[in-house]
Amino acid sequence: MPSSRVTRTPPTTTTPANDDPRHLDETRKYLQDTEEVAAVARHAKEFADLMLLRHLDRINPTVLAQTAEHLYPETTVDGRAVEW
Fold it and tell me: Distance between alpha carbon 24 and the CA centroid of its chain, in Å?
């Protein structure tokens, strides 16, 4: 989903802690960074490394690897070229 479609939901008094608007802001920033990094990264490992630098405390390594390898199907996160 493009980051421009992420909208902020106003907090309510019944909002659980894990639905804190801060999480929406962090997610929006993560999506924006994904677009920026994808525009400059040359392969899956570089994409993953750059995202880790920006979001070390927020990254699920398995999902990051899958995303990187989806965006750059010719390489893997461990730096190997994929041979078809």
Answer: 13
> For residue range 30-64, what is the model confidence (pLDDT) as tens digits?
999 999 999 999 999 999 999 999 998 877 888 89
Reduce the DSSP state of residue 53 to 3 states and report it. helix
**CB-CB contact of 75 with 82 (8 Å):** yes
List alpha helices for the chain, DSSP H. 21-40, 44-54, 61-71
Query: How far is the C-alpha of 75 from the C-alpha of 84, rounded, in Å?
Result: 11
Helices 44-54 + 61-71 axis angle, to 10: 140
| Tokens, residue 38 | 């994808």
Maximum CA extent, the chain: 54
The pTM assigned to this predicted structure is 0.69
CA nearest neighbour of 23 among 58, 61, 51, 50: 58
